[in-house]
Amino acid sequence: MTQIALHNINKHFGAFHVINNVSLTVEDTEFVVFLGQSGCGKTTTLRAIAGLETIDSGEILIGGKPVQDTRVEERDVAFVFQNFALYPHLTVFENMAFPLRAVRTPKAQVETTVRRVADVLQIGGLLNRRPSALSGGDLQRVAIGRALVRNPKAMLMDEPIGSLDAKLREEMRVELKRLHVEQGSTTIYVTHDQIEAMALADRIVVMHAGVLQQVGAPEDVYANPVNLFVAQFVGSPVMNVADVTLAEDAGGARVTVAGATQGFAFPSALLGQVAATGPANRPLTLGVRPEAVRLTLQPAPGAVATEAHIIEPLGSHDIVDFRIGDATLRARTKAGFVPGPGVPVWVTLDHSRAHLFDTATGQTLGIRL
Ligand SMILES: Nc1ncnc2c1ncn2[C@@H]1O[C@H](COP(=O)(O)OP(=O)(O)OP(=O)(O)O)[C@@H](O)[C@H]1O
Q: Which superkingdom (predicted)?
């Protein structure tokens, strides 16, 4: 059983607080992805777990044992980095065998282990080649294989497929997921690519400026972001956000985008729900994903009139961009639904998938209609 637990860990580089009181438990066999912008502290946190960085305070437990004062070798975790280095003069077999030979594993066991792991990674046919004769994806498999042969308690991966081209990244993503299903090692994976995070993770940990913002299943983080940072970081295309005002109108509620003359009709329950969270007239930000924005080509009850601006045809669907007041918003439509730019469209929102955030703090009001 390899649970990895972080209790209030902190780390500074000089005056810079790179890991800010981070607490997290990664369960045995779980695949957790640290997601955040470059410089938010993901790599430093991973390196601290591996033992490659010291921490200023807090506790790191691997398999229930405090390890923050132990050396890398004693932690028995394997890591794979983006710029992995294979030994160029050794064959794939010898590269993979290296960590086993380093701990004087008997020859027969080295042989069976390397072949078994190579089979899992589908590189059994490449064992006699040297790294220079491998494609990027195969090099990556070898690097992962080298980490796996020791049957480590946990795998730590830092952007392991970040240097591959888009198509290969997609293939390797599936491979990594399959590998995890088969091997079941507790895994922490670092990336700034939210699609990779959504695709791979049992749970995503969104980090910003050294602070954990939200921890949850990908679909939960996507559907219920706790703040504007998470809302805009997870999901592609990004969630629409716009400053809005809220008012009572004809027995319902009206949400009007700043600068717009027409507002969106909402159920009157919204007024009470907002009032229950604080002053109703404070600055609010509406958040709504493009798939929760509905366009029609004819006027519809409670719809806001505007016109299509830019249309991105993406094959299976289109992304249509339009202006309402001061905001540019986007809707996901069926392919070819809006015939061209400049066409009049009427906009309604799926209330159950609209979010309101406190503009000043960026926190969600947690309202569900
Ligand atoms: N040894 C160091 N000394 C000083 N500052 C450092 C050191 N290592 C990292 N930093 C700084 O700490 C911050 C966090 O770095 P970290 O590598 O953890 O971020 P990250 O989220 O993994 O980003 P990236 O995806 O770019 O690696 C960055 O601003 C970085 O410049």
A: Bacteria
Range of the domain at 34: 4-226
Within a domain: 369: no
User: Which mutation among 42, 47, 53 tests ligand 1's pocket best, with the greatest number of atoms within 8 A of CB?
Assistant: 42
3-state secondary structure of 261: coil
State whether 29 and 150 are in the same domain.
Answer: yes
Ligand 1 atom 18: the closest Cα is on which residue?
A: 41
| Cβ contact 271:280 at 8 Å | yes
Domain shared by 339 and 215, yes or no: no
pTM of the model: 0.89
Residues 137 and 261 in one domain: no
Q: What is the pLDDT of residues 210-228, one digit of tens each?
A: 999 999 999 999 999 999 9
- Give how many domains the chain has, as a whole number: 2
Of 192, 226, 260, the residue at which a domain comes to its end is 226
Phi, psi for 64 (deg, rounded to 5) = 80, -5
Please tell me the residue having the least CA distance from ligand 1 atom 17. Answer: 43
Share of the chain above pLDDT 90, in %: 77
With a 6 Å cutoff on the Cβ, whether 192 touches ligand 1 is yes
Closest ligand 1 atom, residue 210 Cα:
14
Q: Does the beta carbon of 40 lie inside 6 Å of ligand 1?
A: yes
261 and 165 share a domain?
Answer: no
Q: Is 46 in the pocket of ligand 1 (CB under 6 A)?
A: no
**How do residues 324-355 score in pLDDT, each as one tens digit?**
999 999 999 999 999 999 999 999 999 999 99
- The conformation of residue 318, written as its DSSP 8-state character, comes to E
